[in-house]
């Protein structure tokens, strides 16, 4: 029998995803939302591109201005990369480890970030920086604000891969109560507008093995930094 021309030929990209990863939009703040499972259809393109970036700019643990070694290991791609050392936090055009410019942001990274921002209501997001955070079990990120970007007009897009995490979404003072947002492999969070300067963090990652990424969580944070 011939295919009915009115019924598109499709296949289910989410056939093997967990039910909680069915694509959907959860609002977590006035201008913030979680796009559950949004990155899943992009993974086969995303992971090889990630390997290329990491071959040029490997993960490294950085030192905070206070002299502590971060439990999260970092890399970056795009025109600007975020770094910290004893002298402070900043965006740089060169990787301090290699002395080379940060690797180019792969097209598939840019396109995914732009598509997610659009889905969340932010048209024409043009990220110039992608910070790549690697968490092993036990690694965490304490409550902080992101204030190193030139403008707070653009949203921030964050892609979670690998082991699950509990994201802390706080208020405008460190002492404000935080909301706990579970994030799974393939989830994307978009923050903007009035929520841009909220305190946020990540609870220590629990032990586990992710079938695709092993014993780690990787987070991409896209920003318009410069
Ligand atoms: C919420 N990274 O790199 S996603 C960071 O999962 C960072 O690795 C976390 O916080 C992670 O700075 C959280 C990114 C994020 C970035 C900016 C925000 C969440 C935000 C600004 C306001 C509220
Ligand atoms: Fe942050």
From TrEMBL:
UniProt binding sites for Fe cation: 144, 146, 200
GO cellular component, one term: cytoplasm
Cofactor: Fe(2+)
Transmembrane segments: 152-172
Stretches assigned to the Fe2OG dioxygenase domain: 126-226
GO MF: broad specificity oxidative DNA demethylase activity; ferrous iron binding; oxidative RNA demethylase activity
Coiled coil (residue ranges): none
InterPro entries (alphabetical): Alkb, AlkB-like, AlkB-like_sf, Oxoglu/Fe-dep_dioxygenase_dom
Pfam families for the chain: 2OG-FeII_Oxy_2
Cofactor note: Binds 1 Fe(2+) ion per subunit.
Alphabetically ordered keywords of this record: Dioxygenase, Iron, Membrane, Metal-binding, Oxidoreductase, Transmembrane, Transmembrane helix
Binding site for 2-oxoglutarate: 133-135, 217-223
Gene Ontology biological process terms in this record: oxidative RNA demethylation
Binding-site positions, substrate: 82, 89-91, 148, 174
PANTHER family: ALKYLATED DNA REPAIR PROTEIN ALKB-RELATED, NUCLEIC ACID DIOXYGENASE ALKBH1
Protein name per its UniProtKB record: Alpha-ketoglutarate-dependent dioxygenase
Organism per entry: Pseudomonas fluorescens
